[in-house]
Amino acid sequence: MSSDIDIYTEHFGLRERPFNLVPDPAFLYWGPAHKRAYAILEYGIMTRAPITLLTGEVGAGKTTLLQHLLRSIREEVRVGLISNAHGNPNELLRWVLHALDQPSEADQSYIDLFSQFEAFLLEEYAAGRRVVLIFDEAQNLGRAALEELRMYTNINSGKDELLQLILVGQPELREIVRRPDMTQFAQRVASGFHLSAMTEEVVAKYIGHRVALAGGTEDLFSPGACRAIYEATGGVPRLVNQLCDLSLVYAFTSEDSLVTAATVQDVLGDGVFFGGGLSAEPLRVVNPDKRTSTTH
């Protein structure tokens, strides 16, 4: 076992850290919201939807869902993943071609690049493959780039569309699409889903699920600890992971065999958990075992 995870794994009988902050599809917990979000992504691909939207707050689990989707894509679907694309239409098209492993020369004009892109889509269609472009952090594209993408979806062969788009981003992406001057774009959106934060019940199941996958027991975090973690994080998966990881470190340093509400309160009280800027208000944590509350 590598030294970077030995800080508490052996103490709790874990094979690995259950709350690694890097998105890992192997640890994906299928809560109700994530099941529905993934179903919408699959629905968009299977029905050849022109545009599918997936939005959610930072850390809601969108990227993890995307990674799972990419692992599950069948051979007849050619996927290009573009993250944080920006620039004018010429540069956007270069991002797209690069994601599809297609060359683009520095001196090529927009017309040349578009002709190359169109020819590629026709070739894939003739080979029995569909092309899906996935844009992560799509809220950064802006109105002009989104309109450019809408034009891409107009490329067709007879009645068959050659390109599908999946746009993933933060809540402001939905706000952009709903603007009055984006009506044409919105009409191409076949379906969309907003991935909300987890409920208190789901947070407890999520924590137990990840601990069990890492080789531990599901009751490593007490019910009081799970409630405290939910209240401090608002149920945002990335923040839950951060606070759980820190709580395991604190339980280890205290030589405790499990994480309790008091453990979580110690983490919060020492100010080592920043909460991703979740709230500027003091964090109020309830210990259900003692029926008391503590404000940090």
TrEMBL record:
<protein>
    <submittedName>
        <fullName>AAA family ATPase</fullName>
    </submittedName>
</protein>
<dbReference type="InterPro" id="IPR049945">
    <property type="entry name" value="AAA_22"/>
</dbReference>
<feature type="domain" description="AAA+ ATPase">
    <location>
        <begin position="48"/>
        <end position="190"/>
    </location>
</feature>
<dbReference type="Pfam" id="PF13401">
    <property type="entry name" value="AAA_22"/>
</dbReference>
<dbReference type="InterPro" id="IPR027417">
    <property type="entry name" value="P-loop_NTPase"/>
</dbReference>
<dbReference type="InterPro" id="IPR052026">
    <property type="entry name" value="ExeA_AAA_ATPase_DNA-bind"/>
</dbReference>
<dbReference type="InterPro" id="IPR003593">
    <property type="entry name" value="AAA+_ATPase"/>
</dbReference>
